[in-house]
């Protein structure tokens, strides 16, 4: 620091001030800003949060002039809490660059200085920090740029800072000191020197002025940091400037915090209207007592209930009984008219309770009998699983009913040792015949195993060899997709077949992708066209080889 001794001796000068002239910095600035330069006595110092509002008491400070720093208000939100707005104060001469955000797709322009952005775009301006900016200082705290979700430049304003030099022990510092207009610092104009005359004090001020003649004061400087604006100040050390509209939005206070006796015309709050209360009804006159309700019927009286958007509803008396529901008609089981004997019975799973069954079946050879009528419930027992055997009673009486066919012949069903006669037709379910039926046991379309030891012809149709071979080939085609010829082919084999089909240009690509027979069978026409660029004819040749193994001759 460059100090100049402008005194003739090294004695410490004791400056004086008047107590009635003591003011804080904002008041002092408003009164004396047109009368600078001025020698100031710091009557009450402050250990400030910045270097601009840090002064000790009893310090002498010579104010030369003041500066006007241009600053920008930025409304920002953090990523972790987008519902809380943060207001930042950024000097327009900051070294950080920003990118203007355009459109709903958030397209960022090239990085520019803040002064260039403000001069080229109207407020408000959505911006973001330039890609090369990773962190910033907000006041004295370091913050990551990625923590900011949005930044909106809203307006420009000016802050005032005092420019001067410190005087210590009879020496003046030629380094310019920038001081914030802080309300926490109290000052007073120096009125003289202890033990010296007024003339001596005037000459002392003249020498002080001459010693600082070569010092330059920049009228645009100020706090160079990005700060956070709060209700206490702008974060630069200054108080909130008196602007219209204010820098921070006005917070609405509840009615309890307001002075109800004060009638402030600037009050933005309106007391809600009090609810209107209807006047009380007049008292009932004793001369006209209420008319009693006359009972017109023997039925009990019940109060009427009113429902919104509904008719009047009378509740049902508790003494009334709910009428019983009419009985449901019982279903009657109808036995076939062709049987005059006692119907056959079948045992349940326990073998104790007989269940009534139906009569004997009509002749299956008759053309009048439909296919779905060939099977009777009485011919089969309860079946737990598909492989369970049927159980038939042996003491069922012999049916003697005559069955008349379409030709007019009368046929009496034959009786086997089990009591059932005729042709026992087995439906199309896999069964194991172990009953004692006689006659012809016809098992359609499915193979069965006959273990019967009774008479009659057990007819079991079987599949031919050709049908079995075709079924096996169909099953094999379904399991392998009809591409069995590809399963054993390696990558080199696929390359040889491609050369035979004159598709040499795809050999190298298929080898790089490790396309063997199994993988080739999984490719589709779209894969061949999109991934490998097959033309139509090439695609047809390779696809015929994949599906049928066909190679053009």
Task: Describe this structure as you would to a colleague.
The chain has 553 residues and is of the alpha+beta class. Among the domains are: 15-66 and 160-221, SH3 type barrels; 69-158, no CATH class; 481-548, DNA polymerase, domain 1, CATH 1.10.150.50. Helix content is 16%, strand content 22%. Strand 7 and strand 8 (107-108) form a beta hairpin.
- Which CATH C-level class of the domain at 15-66 and 160-221 is it? Mainly Beta
Structural class: alpha+beta
- CATH fold name of the domain at 15-66 and 160-221: SH3 type barrels
- Main sheet specs: 14 strands, antiparallel
- Beta content comes to 15-25%
Distance between the termini: 100 Å
How many helices? The count is 9
Mean pLDDT: 74
Tell me the CATH architecture of the domain at 15-66 and 160-221.
Answer: Roll
Can you give the helix content as a percent range? 10-25%
Q: Name the poorly predicted regions.
A: 260-267, 344-353, 368-384, 390-394, 400-407, 410-480
Give the CA-based shape: flat
The counted number of beta strands is: 25
- Radius of gyration, in Å, reads 55 Å
Region (Disordered): 227-299, 317-372, 453-484
InterPro entries: GAREM, SAM, SAM/pointed_sf
Biased composition (Basic and acidic residues): 250-261
Domain SAM: 489-533
